[in-house]
Amino acid sequence: MRLIFLFCYIAILVLAFNQFDGYLFDLAAALRGLLIVCSFLPAFFLLWWNKKLSLSLIALSIGLVLFHFKPYSSAEEVQSTDIKVAQVNLQYSNPNLANIITSQFINAQNDILVLFEFNDTQRHVLDELSTQYHLFGYAEVEGAPFGIIVLSKLPIVQRQIKRFDNPKLGYVKLSFLHDNVMLNSVFLHPPSPRTLSLWSQRNLVLSEVASEIKKLKGSWLVAGDFNTVPWSRFFIKNKSSCFNSAGFYTSWSLKNQLSDLKVIGLPIDHCLVSEDVSLSNVDVSFVNGSDHKLLHYELTFSKH
């Protein structure tokens, strides 16, 4: 019996840290935190047969919990920053769009608000804003590209929509001007991996954006609902990110009210920045009507 519990313990951790190239393996790895917590169960059961082995495995699981959930953050609050950004996956059926824009953009200090899963039936909410601020996605005849709308208090000097063979797949490139400094940006929202086909499409978008990043010049920002976790082998690897800066956060769960429980929630909303841009004041907050949290962060350009 003890061999069965030992095998279960090993199998759970192999699934948690696997980097195998497969749909189900990737989904299992996304639940790494939950699997690590589950590993305590067979470790405790082993107390009946081998106390020394059991305590060793429990200590290992505790170490893995601390390694994964990072109950600390090296980030410090910065008072003076250049650009404040907020991004959120609204969820298409969200009836609170006007209130979200008012609280997170009009009446807030945020310079840029990025909305994902924007519902084109609510386009009228943007009518007055189009004459007061710089908008992307509002004027497009076919609707908001990939469900993405960007509201900015900074001038948007370049706009580009990148589409793949599947017109529903792609990303948006925008350039913002701040005090003669150009911030080149990429915004993306790949499909949620609910099926093998959608999983492949998500990976395609992430791969294409990873290639796009290598072409970006100057200061840049990549932001979006990546629909994957930072430890996935398909995640866009970058030294500076919201997740690394914050330590650990969760931005989505089946029930938004439970997303504060790090074991249940997942960090799938992200930002990446170039080496000459500093990230600070990264945090997440609840948004009415959405199963995602709003991700807020501030950018500071290096002074050369």
Automatic annotation (TrEMBL):
Spans traversing the lipid bilayer: 28-48
InterPro entries: Endo/exonu/phosph_ase_sf, Endo/exonuclease/phosphatase
MF-aspect GO terms: endonuclease activity
Record-annotated Endonuclease/exonuclease/phosphatase domain positions: 87-292
One Pfam family recorded for the sequence: Exo_endo_phos
Origin superkingdom: Bacteria
Keywords attached to this entry: Endonuclease, Hydrolase, Membrane, Nuclease, Transmembrane, Transmembrane helix
Protein name: Endonuclease/exonuclease/phosphatase family protein
Organism annotation: Pseudoalteromonas shioyasakiensis
